[in-house]
Amino acid sequence: MTAEEQRLAASRTRQAHWRRWGPYLSERQWGTVREDYSENGTAWDYLPHDQARSRAYRWGEDGIAGISDNHQYLCFAVALWNEADPILKERLFGLSGSEGNHGEDVKEYYFYLDNLPSHAYMKYLYKYPQRAFPYAELVAENRRRGRGAPEFELVDTGVFADDRYFDVVVEYAKASQEDLLIQISVTNRGPEEKPIHLLPTLWFRNTWSWQPESPRPSLRGLDAETPCRCVEADHPILGKRWLYCEGPRELLFTENETNNERLFGAPNRSPYVKDAFHACVVDGQTGAVNPEAVGTKVAAHYVSTIRPGKTKVVRLRLSNAADLADPFDSDFEMVFRERIEEADAFYQRLAPAGLSEEERQIQRQAFAGMLWNKQYYHFVVEQWLAGDPAGPPPPAERRRGRNHEWFHLYNEDILSMPDKWEYPWFAAWDLAFHAVSLALIDPDFAKSQLELLTREWYMHPNGQIPAYEWQFGDVNPPVHAWATLEVYQIEQQIYGRTDRVFLERVFQKLLLNFTWWVNRKDAEGKNVFQGGFLGLDNIGVFDRSARLPTGGHIDQCDGTSWMGMYCLNMLAIAIELALENPAYEDIASKFFEHFLYIADAMNHIGGEDIELWDEEDGFYYDVLHLEDDRHLRLKVRSLVGLIPLLAIETLGPQTLERLPGFKRRLEWFIHNRPDLRQNVACMETPGVGAHRLLAIVNRDKLRQILGRLLDESEFLSPHGIRAISRCHAREPYLFETDGTLHRVDYEPAESSSGLFGGNSNWRGPVWFPVNYLLIGALQRFYRYWGDSFQIECPTGTGQYQTLDEVAAELSRRLVSIFKTDPQGQRPVFGGTHLPFQPELLLFYEYFHGDNGAGIGASHQTGWTGLVANLISQLATRRSPATVTPHPPGPKRGQPLSHKGRGE
Q1: H or E element, residue 77
Q2: What integer pLDDT is reported at residue 890 of this predicted model?
Q3: What per-residue confidence (pLDDT) applies to 725?
Q4: DSSP character for 802?
Q5: Rounded distance between C-alpha atoms, residue 152 and residue 144, angstroms
Q6: pLDDT of residue 554
């Protein structure tokens, strides 16, 4: 094993706590629901950016390039001042949901360059302008622009002209589990020498203000005026730590307490408050900091004037060792060298041999983004509803408002965030995709994430999985079972470990969740499901989570198909468990039968109601049920009609032979229920390798759907599958009710719709998660049909490919978003010239449907991190003999190898 794998093994067996310290600091705590104590639930307005520097947070902390312990008692981050900004740069700036012309949007440039699963080495780059940061201009111009205009970005202000900025590189290397070496390198990229104030800051999360009995931690300076200064941090639970600082001008101390005087005109409890460093350094108020060198927040103040092209290096050390004689001796540099070499060795070992150097670089930055987006997430809903003993009682409306049904929810864990600035809260279906990518490098953490969401302090007593902070009761696509099986198989195939306890534990909880879906989201008991927006936000004609303007309800093609996929995922897990425990054969039969009913409802041959399948168009559509019993297809050609492809599973002959009870039940249905059998694709006809196929989409429907999916004038873009067909650019879908015209246009970039705050668009762009699922589905279809099924790709070109080749082509198109094209450009940047190194990548929320430009949240490596899986899969095709990470489509339906069990 590599050194990193040894650390992970020691952590897994609880021999060493390498994960105690990590990048667990949020990048935005302000503007979140958990910090919102307003009457009307306006989280963005209750605690805006302007108050963040002065107001103590209740539930967590934020900072730039920050770290903390896993309970976030003690935090460390970097603050900066260029002698031009109006405020000290302690946190990343961005627009709130109401300020941006397309919703909330970070307005900074920062890059996650490297990270290890144990966080023994981490590297972060922040681009800090030398001119005054244009806060007011960014707000004013984006407010002026309408939804039809592009967003006004930081680079558009001209603040980076002539390369007048600093590169601030923050690196961490662990000498041991509790000894963190910190190196901050500030490089002047501009043409003139410029001053820079660097304030590495250590502070305690404020726990004492909310609970009167909570003991107060302390920070105090130990050294006199010597080149190396030391701060002792003493916490009643964490214990003592010491921060060694090499050669600062001074140490500044204050309290992590709200500045009530500035914010509310009320007296301060202490003269030393949270924004004291801003007051001292920027405003020159030296009395704002505590001369006694004690407090709960401290900064080492470094001041430098850096010549063009030169670099200032600052070194610090946060350790559990007191009285280090020489904390910055030669071992300091040696540890950094070793950790960097170990990171190289770890990723080299996991990377397939067929990777190009550029692909390695893309994949490693994707993994870095995944790991940097870990966050300490703390939210106890019952306390939030009731209010804190030391604070005023919350408004009465809270007891009937947002999330009041989730009083059981108790979150205090390290979770994978979609984006620690734009989405600094977990989202159920996002996290499922995160786990599949994280499993390639850290299956233990991936499994912990999937387990957490099914634990009793997360999952609702009725079986619902919490969706996300803004509304835990919303409904996300049920992909948890899919992710669970993927992670289980990835760990088995790469690491040789078979964790059946994990598989069984999550499966048992998902039985509750599946029952919740059946009981709550099938309005008429006909196995046709609703579900609401299902994570696809504004993809439809209406907000599918709200009351319809027409009345009635929608039979959702995607909702029903997701449930078909859920059935088959649960069936596959039950079969895997039944290979060792025959009791699971019965539950496998239950999911097999339930899938038949769902497939029958989807294809609805001979049914009374209008079908979801439109024979004339060769496509699936949602069906609107009106209150007068009329039914109407909503003919929007979108991902909604492609989701049926995802409900597919293959069963191998060896598996069926080992499960005689399940096989008898399957054969009974084949012979005795032709009414159900006719609506399931090829259940009775053995395919390649004598496999059986369970799928909603049969061969004829598959060919018709793929004809549209692979049509470049419809779904197929140069960089993946669009969320809505491009046909709606020339033929918008129109629907009029009560004098109001509703329409759906093809929108390849930002949304012109205000649904969901305007910060999301499923009306045309390319989204990685659904593309990833489609690729996996095509691979499974190929395992059944083999080379006998070929399809024109792209449609109309006369070039035919197998489904495996089509899956590879889609993978290449998605990966190409980040690769250098023949013109030397990376499509992810959309032709925008950034005055930065071209190898620095951002992993956006979604991508332009025509040119692949990144759009939405700029650091949503969460599910866009799936590009790492696709890169490995493509490399495997080039070097099939190489042991590589698991591809999107698992090879199911055969007994899995048990090699390595118990290791």
Answers
A1: strand 74-81
A2: 41
A3: 98
A4: E
A5: 10
A6: 86
| Average pLDDT, integer, range 543-562 | 86
Report the interhelical angle of 500-520 vs 480-490 (nearest 10°): 170
Q: What is the CA radius of gyration of the chain?
A: 28
The pTM of this model reads 0.95
The burial of 800, by beta-carbon neighbours within 10 Å (0-12 exposed, 13-18 middle, 19 or more buried), is given as exposed
What is the spatial distance between Cα 427 and Cα 418, in angstroms, rounded to a whole number?
A: 7
| pLDDT score recorded for residue 197 | 98
Q: How many helices (H) and strands (E) does the chain have?
A: 24, 34
CA 422 vs CA 42, 413, 760, 844: distances in Å? 16, 19, 12, 11
Q: How far apart are CA 234 and CA 449, in angstroms?
A: 31
Contacts of 115 (CB under 8 A, 6+ apart): 23, 121, 122, 123, 367, 368, 371, 372
Please answer whether residues 221 and 293 qualify as being in contact, where contact means their C-beta atoms are separated by less than 8 angstroms. yes
Q: What are phi and psi of 195, to 5 degrees?
A: -85, 155
pLDDT digits (tens, 9 = 90+) for 822-852: 988 999 999 887 888 889 999 999 999 999 9
pLDDT tens, 852-879? Answer: 999 999 999 889 999 999 999 999 888 7
DSSP per residue, 118-161: T-SEEEEEEEEESSPP-HHHHHHHHHHS-TTSPP--GGGGTTTG
Neighbours of 731 (CB within 10 A): 12
The torsion angles phi and psi of 728, rounded to 5 degrees, stand at -80, 0
Angle at 866 between CA 469 and CA 62, to 5 degrees: 40
- The highest-confidence range among 319-323, 351-355, 441-445, 527-531, by mean pLDDT, is 441-445
446: phi then psi, degrees, rounded to nearest 5: -60, -45
Q: Judge whether 240 and 232 are in contact, CB under 8 Å.
A: yes
Query: Which among 368, 364, 451 has a CA at the least distance from the CA of 414?
Result: 451
Burial classification of residue 659, based on how many CB atoms lie within 10 Å of its CB (0-12 exposed, 13-18 middle, 19 or more buried): buried
Q: In whole angstroms, what is the distance from residue 863 CA to residue 830 CA?
A: 20
Distance CA 518, CA 140 (A): 48
Q: 66 with 122: CB under 8 angstroms?
A: no
3-state secondary structure of 518: helix
Side chain identity at 756, as an amino acid letter?
F
For the CA atoms of 551, 552, 554, 560, the dihedral, rounded to the nearest 10 degrees, stands at 150
Residues whose CB falls within 8 Å of the CB of residue 6, separated by 6 or more in sequence, listed in order:
none
| C-alpha to C-alpha distance for 88 and 658, rounded to whole angstroms | 66
**Strand boundaries in 441-519, DSSP class E:** none
Q: Which two tokens stand for residue 839?
A: 């190898």
pLDDT digits (tens, 9 = 90+) for 46-84: 999 999 999 999 999 999 999 999 999 999 999 999 999
Containing 765, the helix (H) or strand (E) segment is none
What interhelical angle do 357-372 and 428-438 show, nearest 10? 130
Taking a C-beta distance cutoff of 8 angstroms, is the pair 756, 537 a contact? yes
**Span 7-59, pLDDT tens digits:** 999 999 999 999 999 999 999 999 999 999 998 899 999 999 999 999 999 99
- Which tokens go with 330? 């030669």
What pLDDT does residue 886 have? 41
How far is residue 521's CA from residue 544's CA, in Å, rounded to a whole number? 13
pLDDT of residue 678: 60
**Cα distances (Å, whole numbers) of residue 45 to 133, 384, 643, 761:** 22, 18, 37, 24
* pLDDT of the residue at 885: 42
| Per-residue pLDDT tens digits for 591-623 | 998 998 888 888 774 456 678 899 999 999 999
